[in-house]
TrEMBL record:
GO terms for MF: 3-dehydroquinate dehydratase activity
Record protein name field: 3-dehydroquinate dehydratase
Listed GO biological process terms: amino acid biosynthetic process; aromatic amino acid family biosynthetic process; chorismate biosynthetic process; quinate catabolic process
Tagged with keyword Amino-acid biosynthesis: yes
UniProt keyword annotations, A-Z: Amino-acid biosynthesis, Aromatic amino acid biosynthesis, Lyase
Organism: Croceibacterium salegens
Residue numbers binding substrate: 74, 80, 87, 101-102, 111
Gene transcribed to yield this protein: aroQ
C-alpha cells in the first residue's frame, strides 16, 4: 500500500525557508523520516513536491487511479486559495489528510481559510516536521 505525500509551492526550500517558522528539516529529511516510520507499517511513501498548482491536481487524480491508500497534502499557500484543489479532493475517493508544519490559524488572517480542509478527512498542523509523522499514523489507521 502506498501513501502519496504531496507538497506544494516553496516547500522545496524547506530548511532554508523561514526556519524560525518551518524548522531546519529539509523535505528530503522529512521523506527519510516518513520512510522509516512507514516501513514497519507495511506502507510505501511516494513523496513529491511541485510549485505548480496543476501538478498537484494531476497527482491527486493519479493517487486514486493508482489505488493509493491515502494522500498527505501540504498544499502550501494553495491551501488558502485553490478551489481547483478542493474540487480535485472532492473528485476522488482516496482520503486526503491536510498537513502543515506551522499552524496557519495562529498566523495572518489570509491563512485562516483552508480550501483543502473543506475536502480533507483530517488535518495535522503546527507540529513542524512531526505533523507529517502524525498524519502518516492517521493514514495508516484509515
Ligand atoms: C504551510 C502553511 C501555509 O500557510 C504556507 O503558505 C506554506 C506552508 C505549512 O506547512 O505550515 O507554504 O503549508
Amino acid at each position: 500500500q502506498t501513501v502519496y505525500v504531496l507538497n506544494g509551492p516553496n516547500l522545496n526550500l524547506l530548511g532554508l525557508r523561514e526556519p524560525e517558522i518551518y524548522g531546519s528539516d529539509t523535505l528530503d529529511d522529512i521523506a527519510a523520516m516518513l520512510e522509516d516510520a512507514a516501513r514497519p507499517l507495511g506502507i510505501e511513501i511516494d513523496m513529491r513536491q511541485s510549485n505548480h498548482e496543476g501538478h498537484l491536481v494531476d497527482w491527486l487524480h493519479e493517487a486514486q487511479a493508482e489505488g493509493a491508500k491515502a494522500v498527505l497534502l501540504n498544499a502550501g499557500a494553495y491551501t488558502h486559495t485553490s478551489i481547483a484543489l478542493l474540487d480535485a479532493i472532492r473528485s476522488i475517493r482516496t482520503p486526503v489528510i491536510e498537513v502543515h508544519l506551522s499552524d496557519p490559524m495562529t498566523r495572518e488572517a489570509f491563512r485562516h481559510i483552508s480550501y483543502v480542509g473543506m475536502g480533507a478527512v483530517d488535518e495535522v498542523k503546527g507540529l513542524g516536521a512531526k505533523s507529517y509523522l502524525v498524519a502518516l499514523e492517521k493514514a495508516a489507521a484509515l
